[in-house]
Write a structure and sequence with these properties.
Layout (H helix, E strand, L loop, with lengths): L4 E7 L6 E8 L6 E9 L4 E5 L2 E4 L2 E3 L3 E3 L2 E6 L3 E6 L3 E5 L5 E5 L7 E2 L24 H7 L15 H4 L4 H8 L21 H11 L5 H16 L17
Antiparallel strand pairs: 1-2, 1-12, 2-3, 3-4, 4-5, 5-6, 7-8, 8-9, 9-10, 10-11
Helix pairs in contact: 3-4, 4-5
Length: 242
């Protein structure tokens, strides 16, 4: 995505929720990172910033609840919004955003997270109702501000920075081995793109790829946790810096 605000996901039928993400340039200036999230329900609008949460224009302390919407801190970094609307949003205050919607929204969602209809062929449904084959055109259609510059195609960072390729491959292939492989049946790290995403992030990271590696692994571990698979990876000497 580019540097703008985008609709990640929304209830396109009954308008029960909308989740927006603001991107900014990452530290190397070439790629985009999450700056903030806005979670909109009929009863409350929540802005998640790095290190703080704002409701009604005022910063609030966590945990806090607003009529069926709970905002908590999970662990050291993750901000969690859970609701009676059947929507859950998790953000680690850096890169990883995870949106979970309940089955009541089948055939009712749209946005960058795609359609929730068990048909991957139309996940690139634009805000204008047309399905496109290009990720950039798809992403640009979900900008909330037409004055923002459109995102453009950029080379894969492992091509831009070939010197990082071997490091990315070596580190990200760890998702295929212990302690992570206990989850391979539930979340295949290759088929579901976690290895590729990890390599992309590590190559595109700044001078120290450790942060991006930790974030990529954290995303996979969180996906596994949603299937009830717990992975004790932070006790591994390789990841003490995470």
């Amino acid at each position: 995505m580019g540097r703008c605000e985008y609709v990640l996901a929304k209830d396109s039928v009954n308008n029960k929720f909308e989740i927006r993400q603001v991107n900014e340039a990452c530290e190397n200036g070439k790629f985009s990172c999450t700056k903030s999230l806005t979670v909109i329900f009929p009863t409350v609008t929540i802005q998640l910033l790095r290190g703080s949460v704002v409701v009604g224009g005022a910063e609030v302390d966590l945990p806090v609840s607003y009529g069926g919407v709970d905002i908590t801190r999970s662990g050291v970094r993750v901000t969690l919004v859970d609701s009676d609307y059947g929507v859950k949003v998790e953000w680690n205050n850096v890169h990883n955003v995870r949106v979970t919607v309940y089955g009541r929204y089948i055939d009712k969602t749209s946005g960058l997270c795609g359609t929730f209809n068990r048909n991957p062929e139309d996940d690139f449904l634009t805000a204008y109702g047309a399905t496109v084959g290009n990720a950039v055109d798809f992403g640009n259609s979900w900008k909330t501000d037409s004055c923002c510059d459109n995102a453009t195609d950029v080379p894969h960072p492992c091509e831009t920075y070939p010197g990082k390729n071997a490091t990315a491959t070596a580190n990200c292939s760890a998702l295929l081995s212990p302690p992570f492989n206990v989850c391979a049946r539930q979340v295949d790290p290759v088929l579901q793109g976690y290895v590729d995403d990890c390599e992309y992030d590590v190559c595109g990271c700044g001078d120290d790829p450790t942060v991006c590696l930790c974030q990529a692994i954290e995303a996979y571990v969180a996906a596994c946790a949603s299937y009830g698979v717990s992975i004790d990876w932070l006790s591994d000497d390789r990841y003490q810096q995470c």
